[in-house]
Amino acid sequence: MGCTVFDYSVWPNPPPERFQYFQQETLGGMSQADYCPVFGSLYKNNANDLDCRDEGNSEGYSFFGEEYGTDSMCFESTAGIGSGSGRCYKTACNLQTFKVEVFLGNEWRTCEQDFEQLEIAADVSTVLRASTVTCPRLSSVCPAMFCPANCAGRGVCNFTHVNETDGLVRPKCECFNVTDTSEACSESLPLDGKYIEDSSGLTNRLRRDFFGPLVAVFTDNPNDWDTDSWIWASALLVIFLLLMLCVCSTFCPKKSNKRRRRGARSDEYRSQGPPSSYEHGDSPRRGKVRPQRKEYYD
Which pTM value belongs to this model? Predict the structure, then answer.
């Protein structure tokens, strides 16, 4: 994926004036997104197909460790052709450390600060390609982690507030109502999976090994095979049968044409008809007819 910017000068209708975001009036994103440039594929027909939160937008196995779901977000990445591509990764906002946790490759990584770059190492076993992911502005990704619900519109977020317990700078809502001591100047922030109390619930997990099911065909009991192993086994069986068919067709002798030639001669002779006379009064033997000799006279 990349940043979708089109030059509408090749089309009859340029973006409307209220949707022009560039100095050049003919430039803009997809019409489905109000001509706003977004990360995505140039071959998508619907802006909703670019949503990382929709599992249905997944293109199957990802060589860059992407993961689509309700907790996934779009990150700038060097994966793919060129740089500046958008990739989807699972994300969690850590309320204990005020950091953003991102699941890259096979493990959770931490975005310590805005626009930090995290490296993803290549992994041959999972066919994972090397790339670099750029962390977004933390307050944009997890706004409620700094000032929950943007103080619910009932206060102002003080980003320079110093926490009295540990002396760290932690943003805090200063409510218009001085009697409101809640963190968001409203009800407590519900923990819905995106926001977590701490990192104790984050567990690393290995990505599916691309060649693992193939190895299991030769090492494991068939009763323990999964669907991928059965697919590999079926493919190997088909390849083996095709090879055997090629070998048999190579060594199989060709049929003789003698019988076919003999039958053709008999048909030709029958079409000429039986001879009207025989030389020297000889009669033909039973089962065999002597061909009549033709003589030519001047």
Answer: 0.49
